[in-house]
Amino acid sequence: MNFDEEESFKKTPSRRIEKEIDVELLKDKIKEVSKKVDSISEQLSNAFSKSEKKKERLKIFLDTADVEQIRKAHSWGILDGITTNPTLVSRTGRGFRECIEEIVSIVDGPISAEVVSLDSKGMVKEARGLSKIHKNIVIKVPITPEGLKTIKILSQEGIKTNATLCFSPNQAILVAKAGASYVSPFIGRLDDIGHDGMQVVRDIVKIYNNYDFETKVIVASIRHPMHVVEAAKTGAHIVTVPFNVLEKMVKHALTDVGIQRFLDDWAKVPKGELKKYL
Ligand code: G3P
C-alpha cells in the first residue's frame, strides 16, 4: 500500500470496510468453524472413552455349583467369578449355604447366589442374609416387578445384584435403571425356542454403551464354545460358561496332533549332549 492508498484507506468510512469484508458472512463462517470444532472435540472424546472401555478385559465366570469343577478351572488361572442357580445347586446334592461358603473360599471374585422368594420383602430378607456370607456375594434376582423393587432397594444398600432370567433388551433397560450390577441374558434358552439369543446380547450392549449404564452384561445359558466367541465379539463384559464348554474352549485337535508329532520327533533327537545342561 503506497502513501496515497494509505491516506485514502484511513478516510474510508468504517461502514464501507464492513461492507467490503461482509461482516455477516464472516460471523456465519466463525459459527460454522466453531460448530466443526465442537463436533471434532466430541468425536475425539467419544473415541477416547471407547478406547478406555476396550481396556476392560473379558471376564470368564464358571456357571456351576460343583466345587471340583471350580477348583479345576481355578487352577488354570483364568477364572474371574462364579454364577450359580437353584438347579445347579440341586445337582450337587449339597446344602445351598454350604456350597456357597466353599465356593467363596476358592474363588476371589463375584459369586452369584440366587434368591427364591417371589415377593420383594422376602427377596430382600434372603439377600441381606446371603450377602453376610462374604463380600463377594452377588444376589441373583429374577426380573419381575418385585425383582425390580428388590434390585433398587439392594443397590441403595450397596448390595450387588445380578438380574437373572433376562430374555429381552427391555428387561435389560429396566434392571439397569433399577441399579443392577449385572444382567444375565440367557442366550441358549432363547436359541432353544427359535429366537436369536445373541441378537438380544448385541442390543443390550449397544443400549448400555449409548447411555453409559454401569450394569455389566453376563452372557449366560451358554451351550458351546462359539457362543463364547460371539459374545466376546459383541463386547459383552462377561461370559459364564458350564465346565464342559470351558474344556472345549481349551481343546483343539491340531494342538493334540502337533504335540504328538513334536514328541515323536523329539524321540529321534540324540540326547547325549542334554546331560551337560540338565
Ligand atoms: O447362568 C444361567 C444358566 O445356568 C442357565 O443355563 O443351560 O439352564 O439354560 P441353562
Describe the structure.
The protein has 278 residues and is an alpha/beta fold. It folds into 2 domains: 36 residues, no CATH class; 195 residues, Alpha-Beta Barrel (TIM Barrel). The chain contains 15 helices and 8 strands. Strands 1-2-3-4-5-6-7-8 form an 8-stranded parallel β-barrel, surrounded by 7 helices. It is flat. The termini are far apart. Bound molecules: SN-glycerol-3-phosphate. SN-glycerol-3-phosphate binds next to α10.
List keywords for this structure.
single chain, 278 residues, alpha/beta, TIM Barrel, 2 domains, 8-stranded parallel beta barrel, 15 helices, 8 strands, binds SN-glycerol-3-phosphate
**Architecture of the largest domain in CATH?**
Alpha-Beta Barrel
Q: Number of helix segments?
A: 15
Q: Provide the β-strand percentage band.
A: 5-15%
CATH superfamily of the largest domain: Aldolase class I
Average pLDDT number: 91
Bound molecules: SN-glycerol-3-phosphate
Overall, the morphology is flat
Percent helix:
55-70%
Tell me the number of structural domains. Answer: 2
Number of strands: 8
**CATH topology type of the largest domain:** TIM Barrel
CATH class of the largest domain: Alpha Beta
End-to-end distance, in Å?
Answer: 90 Å
| Low-confidence residue ranges | none
Radius of gyration: 30 Å
